[in-house]
Amino acid sequence: MRVLLATRNAKKLRELRRILDATGADVEIAGLDDVPAYPEVPETGLTFEENALLKARAGVQATGLPTIADDSGITVDVLNGMPGVFSARWAGRHGDDEANLRLVLGQVAEVPDEHLGAEFVCAAALCIPGGREYVTHGRQPGKLIREPRGENGFGYDPIFVAAGNTRTNAELTAEEKDAISHRGQAMRALADILHEQIES
Ligand code: ITT
Ligand code: NA
């Protein structure tokens, strides 16, 4: 089966591909580079789930292919769950990871270390031509640190330490991150659904 992974974030795409590959899913993966017709999708949803569905539906509409999309972000306890669905554009310009991370650090500058709880959240949607839609979820609890560390991963990974870890997400290997990440959990659950679709 050919499946479209509908994301314009190259680092996210690499993770999605890697996680899906590791499940042994018998799929041929297409990216948006292969699909010129995929539109700009306004992320107007108020939840990760709504946005993931908007992006995945757009893929089905543009290509007729079963489409997977992920909407994800970080929720910071003392920021009442923000940046949340606004994580990619928290500092204004969409996808400016460095500015987004700096803004969050500035916003928690006066917050005591013991109150720096945060969580990565991911909703992964699979939409299939004919109308079937599935959404799975993953979360990675942890805390923020003030000094970014590590070169791996992307986004807020350098300032996030998962519960039970001492290294930041950006100091983990790809395999270590995938094993515990919000995206790893959501995508493995979605891969199970994909398998059932392939078999039926
Ligand atoms: P697409 O919508 O095209 O998939 P995007 O980057 O805009 O790309 P999102 O709207 O889901 O994707 O925004 C996710 C943002 O949340 C992303 O830009 C990061 O800043 C942050 N984020 C999500 N997953 C992350 C992870 O695993 N590690 C670090 N930051 C992450
Ligand atoms: Na989003």
UniProtKB/TrEMBL annotation:
Substrate binds at residues 7-12, 72, 154-157, 177, 182-183. It catalyses: dITP + H2O = dIMP + diphosphate + H(+); XTP + H2O = XMP + diphosphate + H(+); ITP + H2O = IMP + diphosphate + H(+). This is dITP/XTP pyrophosphatase. The active site is at residue 71. Binds 1 Mg(2+) ion per subunit. Pyrophosphatase that catalyzes the hydrolysis of nucleoside triphosphates to their monophosphate derivatives, with a high preference for the non-canonical purine nucleotides XTP (xanthosine triphosphate), dITP (deoxyinosine triphosphate) and ITP. Seems to function as a house-cleaning enzyme that removes non-canonical purine nucleotides from the nucleotide pool, thus preventing their incorporation into DNA/RNA and avoiding chromosomal lesions. GO terms for biological process: nucleotide metabolic process; purine nucleoside triphosphate catabolic process. Belongs to the HAM1 NTPase family. Pfam families: Ham1p_like (PF01725). InterPro entries: dITP/XTP_pyrophosphatase, ITPase-like_fam, RdgB/HAM1. GO terms for cellular component: cytosol. NCBIfam families: RdgB/HAM1 family non-canonical purine NTP pyrophosphatase.
